[in-house]
Design a protein that fits this description.
It is a single chain. The chain is an alpha/beta fold. It is built from twelve helices and 13 strands. Helix content is about 40%, strand content about 15%. The radius of gyration is 22 Å and the shape is elongated.
């Protein structure tokens, strides 16, 4: 393992025990990584949060929110330090308390964009890291960024695309993730917004709908707030029929007939239970006779 004393960048080759185990699974990963700070822990779940540089206020808020809640649950956030969604993902992760990691399209000793210098330094200071397949001193090139996306997805257990135009670099990350067998989620937005078109295309093609951070936590096999709240609500002394119906529901809309079949309750008892759960604020009707668990 070589050390660049001037820039404090370590060179880790593929044969080193420090080389990330997740990258070893793929042939097209770099032979060397140049690292400043730390690498992601193999023992913790990781999620990539990527999206548009020129994002909307909605996108910024949601990227920060999802990253923060995932980080609070112990998830390492991986992104690319770019303006917009990437940077908000890193900021949210730092706020959540779990280290975050940036994969760069230039040398790890160079902060690009320069305006992210404070964020770059904070990531390293708070036990995260920045790294690259390019040697120190390498300036950013447009064609480096699509290539680095394969590393972002390979290090992650799932990829969340927050906002993306129909032709976007974030969709390249999503495609890499699919090719690597990773789960891809997309955040829905207004149907008439250009920044939502890439996400809606992913959803149309089968990506998961990121309705809440808890959905991603479940995908990662983590106990999430909704599960804790659900357990607490089940312990509030609900009648057995109410518990049965409530336990059948989640964040995906289900019809009254489906719930009746799943629980074995007669339709009239199912309907009565749903009405009572709605009054208690535990269930919401979505559309006509379709129900989900209430969040919050």
């Amino acid at each position: 393992m070589e050390r660049n004393q001037e820039s404090e960048v370590r060179c880790i080759d593929r044969g080193s025990p420090e080389y990330p185990e997740k990258l070893r699974n793929y042939e097209d990963m770099p032979e060397k990584l140049y690292v400043k700070g730390r690498l992601p822990s193999s023992g913790r779940p990781s999620a990539a949060i990527v999206g548009a540089r020129m994002c909307s206020p909605y996108g910024r808020i949601q990227a920060f929110r999802y990253a923060k809640e995932l980080s609070q649950a112990g998830v390492q956030i991986i992104s690319g330090l770019a303006w917009g969604i990437d940077s908000e993902g890193h900021r949210g992760a730092l706020e959540g308390g779990t280290p975050t990691f940036a994969v760069l399209g230039n040398g790890a000793d160079i902060c690009y964009p320069r305006s992210s210098r404070g964020l770059y330094q904070r990531i390293i200071r708070e036990q995260g890291g920045v790294f690259s397949e390019y040697p120190p001193g390498t300036q950013a090139r447009k064609y480096f960024f699509p290539a680095r996306n394969r590393i972002i997805s390979a290090l992650s257990d799932l990829v969340l695309v927050v906002e993306a135009r129909e032709k976007s670099g974030s969709l390249i990350t999503a495609q890499w993730a699919l090719d690597q067998g990773k789960a891809v989620f997309a955040l829905p937005g207004p149907v008439n917004e250009e920044l939502s078109q890439g996400c809606h295309r992913l959803i149309y093609d089968g990506a998961g709908i990121a309705l809440s951070p808890e959905i991603l936590m479940r995908e990662l096999g983590l106990n999430c707030k909704n599960k804790i709240k659900s357990k607490e609500k089940d312990e509030l002394g609900l009648a057995s029929n109410l518990k049965l119906v409530y336990s059948c529901l989640d964040l995906r809309p289900k019809s009254g007939d489906f719930i009746s079949q799943e629980t074995g309750l007669p339709p009239e008892k199912t309907a009565a239970a749903l009405v009572e759960l709605e009054v208690l604020g535990l269930v919401r009707e979505i559309g006509r006779h379709y129900y989900v668990k209430a969040q919050g």
